[in-house]
Amino acid sequence: MDVNTGPEFSIDPEGAALFMMFEMERYVEEWHGSNARKALAMEGHHVAGVEYRTYVSYGFLSVAKGQEAKVDEIMRRTAWRERLGLAGYQYDHARALAMSVEASVPEIPSQEEVEASRRAEVARTRRIKRDALQQKRINLQQLYTEWAPDVPWRHMVKEGQLPMVALPRNRKGRLVLRHLITPYRLADFLSNNPFVVARVRAHRGKKPVGQTMDLFRLAA
Fold first, then answer.
1. Within a domain: 117
2. Angle, helices 183-191/111-135, rounded to nearest 10 degrees
3. In this structure, are 78 and 145 located in the same domain?
């Protein structure tokens, strides 16, 4: 509707006085008298909000500037409720109760439950990281390039000092063995071999600290 707007919601006193003087009795009789428009309302006409529409049409009601869309939304929602029998003359209390649903009461966890949930989440995160580390494998080439190039890794593998798993693979038509070790097994080996740890420290100290260095700290 084309409504008057102003700095805030307001009623023009002079316009309201003229309406009450010349139109009020007619509207009261039309809607609440012996010949009220209940029958017409029951046929689907929008009755809820008729007062607002009437006052706006007479021009003595002003809506706050920028609130026209909000008022229109309220009026549309009210008309929708009226069509369902939830407002206006067609309001049916029993039907409204039948259409309603019971809202569940939100459960507020106790401090002990919150702390238990936090501990469980920390344990889950640690387990995921541990599983990721257990699935990670380090090969001989990485030991030479990332850990220490001057340590005889291959010789220690052949002598059985360094426990690495040998997996066969096809490389350029030839069957070769790929030696792999988990970070945890490497950490155990380093903890029992301080000479190798010193070599690794000297080599790793020249490079930025990365994930491999973090694994090395397990042994250190």
1. no
2. 80
3. no
Cβ partners under 8 Å of residue 199, min gap 6 = 148, 150, 151
- Burial label for 71, CB within 10 Å (0-12, 13-18, 19+), is middle
Choosing from 99, 125, 160, the residue where a domain stops is 99
Number of domains in the chain: 2
Which residues 6+ apart lie within 8 Å of 54 measured at CB?
A: 27
Domain membership of residue 105 (yes or no) is no
In-domain check, residue 190: yes
Average pLDDT on 97-126 reads: 87
Contact of 89 with 30, CB cutoff 8 Å: no
Which of these ranges, 129-133, 143-147, 157-161, has the smallest mean pLDDT? 129-133
Digit-coded pLDDT (tens) for 154-208: 888 888 888 888 877 776 777 777 788 888 788 888 888 888 888 888 887 765 5
E runs forming strands in 81-200: 138-139, 165-171, 174-181
pTM of the model: 0.40
Which of 46, 76, 99 is the last residue in one of the domains? 99
In a domain, 94, yes or no: yes
Range of the domain at 198: 135-219
For the chain, the residue count is 220
pLDDT in tens, 32-82: 777 776 555 555 566 778 888 889 889 999 999 888 889 999 988 888 888
Q: Which residues pair with 138 in a beta bridge?
A: 181
Q: 146 and 95 in one domain? A: no
